[in-house]
Amino acid sequence: MATSLAGKTAIVTGAGSGINLAFARLLLRKQCNVVVADLALRPEAKEVVAAHSSLSRSPARAVFQRTDVRDWAQLECMFSTATKEFGGADIVCPGAGVYEPHPSITLPSMPSPASSAHLRPSIVITGFVSRPLHRG
């Protein structure tokens, strides 16, 4: 049995571009409000947020909250935005990643770690839940 997303609210980190933006778009199409949490918005993400602003006729809204997922204070602010704008969050998609290439990665055919880092990147996916996600 599928669960309806209509009227729910999701926080999607890393939704300023790429696959997380695509996920935010899908949620919005399913009438789910979205807090787009990222360092910045690419032009296509700005269009999505504008099309789902409080001024639009869209059944779901999107708001941008500048968020560096490495900073707990900014994560708290992100949750506060969800509460202020939508009464809380029902879904959290911790999609933002922090790219930290490991200096010792070297492939036999590549002489320097810098040239091979793009072939074997280490990605740290951030995860967080600072408090329960139920609305009260």
Largest sheet: 4 strands, parallel
Task: Tell the overall outline.
Answer: globular
Tell me the Rg in angstroms.
Answer: 17 Å
Percent of residues in helices = 25-40%
Structural class: alpha/beta
Question: What is the typical, i.e. mean, pLDDT?
Answer: 82
- How large is the count of helical segments? 4
Roughly what fraction of the amino acids lie in strands? 15-25%
Total number of strands? 6
Give me the side-by-side strand order of the main sheet.
Answer: 3-2-1-4
3D architecture notes:
Strand 1, helix 1 (18-29) and strand 2 (33-38) form a beta-alpha-beta unit. The longest helix is centred in the middle third of the chain and has 15 residues, at 72-86. 29% of the residues lie in helices and 18% in strands. The strands form two sheets. The chain has a four-stranded parallel sheet with strand order 3-2-1-4, sandwiched between helices. By secondary structure, it is an alpha/beta fold. Residues 115-127 have low confidence and may be disordered. It contains four helices and six strands, in the order E-H-E-H-E-H-E-E-H-E. The chain is globular. The chain starts with 8 loop residues before the first strand and ends in an 11-residue tail after the last strand.
